[in-house]
Amino acid sequence: MGEGADRMNGNGSHQIEGEIAEIRGRLDQSLAELDRRRHEATDIKLQVRRHPAAVAVAGGVVLLLLGGIGYAIWAARQRERPVNKAKRLRLALSRMIDEPQKVAKAEPTVPEKILAAAGTAAATILTKKIIERAMNEAGRKEPARAR
Is the per-residue pLDDT at 94 higher than 50? Predict the structure, then answer.
């Protein structure tokens, strides 16, 4: 008989128990290793000692982000000051006087009109198809029966 047949009769029970004990031992070792690695991964002091360059780079990135945010806030506040608003208004008016054709267009060009018409038609067709598909799927579902 083969090995499987030996296991089925009473002679192989010790062999199966041995295999179970061996598998259980390997599983215990794996779990212990995973637990050790989890503790190491969450130990900040250990990670700082092991990876000082990565910590320095991460700290630098955080400082740069905070500095950028601080600068953006400062610059926004500077732009809102009345003196700076007046300067921007003066520049806008001088540009408007120098090149009035760039301030506003009277009529859209022919290609712009064609593009707008094509875009509107495409959006209409797409919306219609989506609504039809939704209605068809809603019609296919059977209403729930009361019990």
Answer: yes
The C-alpha R_g of the chain, in whole angstroms, comes to 37
Q: In this structure, which amino acid lies at residue 48?
A: V
pTM of the complete model: 0.40
Query: Structural domain boundaries of the chain?
Result: 1-42
pLDDT, tens digit (0-9, with 9 covering 90-100), for 11-60: 678 899 999 999 999 999 999 999 999 999 999 999 899 999 999 999 99
CA distance 85 to 79: 7
Query: Residue 107 corresponds to which tokens in the numbers above?
Result: 């009529």
Alpha helices in the chain (DSSP H): 3-8, 13-42, 44-50, 52-79, 82-98, 110-140
Whether 125 contacts 117, CB under 8 Å: no
Contact 38, 46 (CB under 8 A): no
Both tokens of residue 108? 């859209």
In the block, tokens 């212990």 appear at 32
Q: What is the pLDDT of residue 8?
A: 53
